[in-house]
Request: fold
Amino acid sequence: MATKRRAEAMEENRKKLIAAARKAFAEKGFAAASMDELTASVGLTRGALYHNFNDKRGLLAAVVAQVDSEIAQRAKEIAKEAEEGWDQLLAEGVAYIQMALDPEVQRIVLLDGPAFLGDPSHWPSQNACLEATRATVAEMINKGVLKTVDADAAARLLSGTALNAALWVAASDNPQERLPKAIETFTLMAGGLRA
Reply:
């Protein structure tokens, strides 16, 4: 019983730290966020942070995973409004790119994430998205919607193009101006896969 309560308390502390870090990283950026302020804001110590995440970078990885997973889910929800098949796949990619305008997504996932965690293609959240895209692409190839190409290569290129377009938009001094260019080019490139 005590072990269960301890595990529940640890999980609760983990959730508190992620929520506080998400707010701090979105408002101040990873580099400027103070771990002492962050832990104090939820009534915990640095020891709790180190116990759960090893360091500040580990906490960022947990926040990026959470936000990135939410982005992917939101993109899927938006894509459901399009017709099935190709239109949904394209809408999902476009929605992902559009989320580069969201200040939280922009700061945490598209700017600080790559700067402090490295190549996004190595993040577990990106790999989960890639696998879902690969399954969709394989199904569309089998149905004749897409050209007969390697499904893994097509999924990697589609996902990579959407991610890099979002990174390009987020890093711009004028993201609103860059967004339509990114979407238009993504759409044209992706369209080359259609049968």
In short: The two ends are 59 Å apart (CA to CA). The domain at 1-54 is CATH 1.10.10 (Arc Repressor Mutant, subunit A). Residues 90 and 191 are 9 Å apart (CA to CA).
